[in-house]
Write a structure and sequence with these properties.
Blueprint (H helix, E strand, L loop, with lengths): L1 E4 L13 H8 L3 E4 L16 H14 L2 E5 L10 H20 L4 E5 L7 H22 L2 E5 L9 H10 L5 E6 L10 H8 L3 E6 L7 H4 L26 H10 L9 E4 L8 H23 L1
Parallel strand pairs: 1-2, 1-8, 2-3, 4-5, 5-6, 6-7, 7-8
Helix pairs in contact: 3-4, 6-8, 8-9
Length: about 290
């Protein structure tokens, strides 16, 4: 299993080419390349040319830090056909960037709109008709996260959508900080998805259903909002013993192609300390869960 740093908290203090050395200094062997203005921004065309991609690959080689996954977020499930077609074009370039970086794992979100779920699902499957043949040709796996406010937000429902594409090149992302939006129990999702769980994001969050649904209050009541955080382990309500034991029991931690990402965005001012803490916690909790299993 690969332990990876999501460098999002460092976007304002470090350049893309500094991320590999930063990760090495923090003790990580891998980074996850998340949306960034110089590489693949949110929703718009990738901005990296071949020269920048080559320089990033060279920095990874020099520091010994690999890229575990490339994460674009593009509107490939948009019910607006023009936006969907545009996103497919952007995806083709994003895939080429991953190939040129020597990365065979990507992950992303469903996008689309929950209030137009049927249309968004249809758009998703139309996009797959173009994208999946490219993934299969290039040997790329794409893991998908049912992100809050996507057209599908529940864990098992999202897995059914992925399974329906009928391609081994699509898999599932479990984001711990989305647990309370996914409806289904974490262990049920992990066991159902099995070895098609390829990426997990480790960050804590509060349970917005707690306290009679009043843990968070938005006004006016009934706002169509989704609330969650990406806190460090222990600052929220995620059951971490269950999470890590589930990953061990389902074999996630034993697979070389699995990716576990520190995904904390709530403490940029303490990003150095938090990143080190996350890595220590992830390693220790995996080891404890493995010891308990044996």
């Amino acid at each position: 299993m690969k332990y990876a740093l999501d460098p999002t908290p460092f976007h304002s203090t470090h350049s893309v080419l500094e991320f590999p050395k930063l990760a090495a200094d923090l003790g990580y062997d891998y980074i996850q390349l998340t949306p960034h203005a110089d590489i693949i921004p949110f929703f718009t065309h990738p901005k990296a040319d071949d020269d920048l991609v080559a320089k990033l690959a060279a920095e990874c080689k020099n520091t010994g830090v690999g890229i575990a996954s490339v994460l674009p977020v593009l509107r490939w499930s948009s019910p607006d056909e023009n936006l969907r077609q545009t996103a497919v074009r952007y995806w083709k370039r994003a895939i080429q960037i991953a190939v040129d970086l020597g990365v065979n794992q990507m992950n992303t979100e469903f996008t689309g709109r929950p209030e137009r779920a049927e249309e968004s699902e249809a758009a998703f499957y139309r996009s797959m008709e173009e994208i999946v043949p490219i993934l299969e040709r290039e040997g790329i796996n794409v893991a998908i996260d049912p992100h809050p406010d996507d057209f599908v937000e529940e864990g098992l429902a999202a897995w059914r959508v992925i399974r329906g594409v009928n391609s081994p090149n699509l898999s599932f992302v479990y984001v711990a900080s989305h647990s309370f939006h996914m409806k289904d129990e974490p262990l049920e999702i992990m066991k159902t998805v099995g070895d098609r769980l390829r990426v997990v994001h480790v960050a804590d969050t509060m349970n917005h259903h707690a306290s009679h649904g009043l843990r968070y209050i938005t006004n006016p009541p009934g706002n169509a909002v989704r609330v969650h955080q990406h806190l460090k382990i222990g600052d929220g309500d995620v059951n971490w013993d269950e999470f890590f034991s589930g990953l061990v029991d389902t074999g996630f931690t034993d697979r070389e192609d699995s990716v576990m990402v520190s995904s904390v965005f709530a403490e940029n001012e303490n990003a150095i300390e938090v990143s080190k803490y996350q890595l220590e916690q992830m390693r220790a909790r995996v080891a404890a869960a493995q010891s308990a299993r044996s």
